[in-house]
Amino acid sequence: MTRYVRRFSRTERTLHWVNALGFFMLLLTGLILYLPSLAVLVGRRPLIKDIHFWSGVGWIAALVLIALLGDRRGLLRTARELDAFDPEDVRWLRRQRPAPQGRFNAGQKVNAALTAAFTLLFLVSGLLLWLGERDTRFRFASTVVLHDGLMFIALALLVGHLYLAVIHPATRHALRGMTLGTVSEDWARAHHPRWIDSGEEG
Amino acid sequence: MPEPRRYGRGVFLLTAVGGISSLAWGKSVWDHVSAAVSPLAGSIAPFLPTGGWRIYTVSGSMPTWRLTVGGLVEKPLSLSYDELRALPRANQISTFHCVTGWTVQNVHWAGVRLSDVFAQAKPLPEAGALQFVSSEKPYVDYLTMQQSLLHDVMLAYEMDGKPLPREHGAPLRLIIPEMYGYKNVKWLEGINLLPQAGNGYWEVLGYDRDAWVGRSNGYSSAPPPAPTPAVQPSHRGFLT
What we know:
The structure holds 2 protein chains of 2 kinds. Chain A has helices at 10-34, 36-42, 45-69, 72-83, 87-93, 106-132, 143-167, 174-179, 185-191, 193-198, and strands at 4-6, 182-184.
């Protein structure tokens, strides 16, 4: 009989999937605006631009709302966990083993920090693109380079994230934690032993 | 167990500050990178925006085409594609600048000069500006008569040795390298000569009417490209 332990709260999972939905909406509409072949195929550029812009605004607003209305204390605790790198995390990043990990491994912590920074940068560069079309004081030659460059790096992170969450046999069990909220205790002990030993899992 | 280090916020802050600061250096770095990889880009060109082009349209529809020249002219024209190709052919290599910051260097254009169109249509003395009408409604833009006679302004029907591709404005587009891309009207179907210039599609939305590269639309860093009007003596009369 497999025992399951709770890894992600409802607030954390809602935040994750709303973030994912917003990102995919923006990626899809953004690629239509960006790639010549798709731009010509779809046409209707002003409509796609509006969808892209309002998806972005809705994305940020939804993330803020969920954080405010959900389990704020739990999110703050998670943020502190993601922020803190102990010597085992540093060993893990240097590919030294064994390096027993907590609820998040060091790679997930780096990914979280990058993703948070990218969200801010997407927001700032996107608003500058929008404002620059209306007032040239907000127009910078590098805005489009930043916005597009972020997309390429974020896409690379996403591909790695999807590979580990869906395909890689050793890690794909983690997807259950982000959908149902729980993971098997055996898997958690193998991948996140210090979390299991800390007794903080629910 | 020693106290954990707060590296997470460090990664976040470094990335955020690096990203924001790239507003100052991003374009020059990107220009170097794209110059370095552009020879490799041919194999993925059909899908990725290689060569630096991005396709901006205002309606998405690109209907069929015919060029009319009307307004303040002695002889209104309606030119078929073949009739246009029969006019004297001009070639040029020029750089295309978009107001949003991207640039495509050394594009090879072929087409006709407006002076050769004027030789047939014969603008009236009171004609001071040209309205360029795109098949992509409601896109229009304007040049003054003087601007239209700059030496490298062209109605282009070929790009990089091939017929102008549809997404670049086939069969005919305006090219004025000294000005940002939105003045370079694509899917050109009509030229109307008027007493003076009006506001084009983007100019109604606040863009500059005289869209000189590097010194309009809030840009001031680049030195002025110093356009040199090259007007044949027989056409000098239109300029006064």
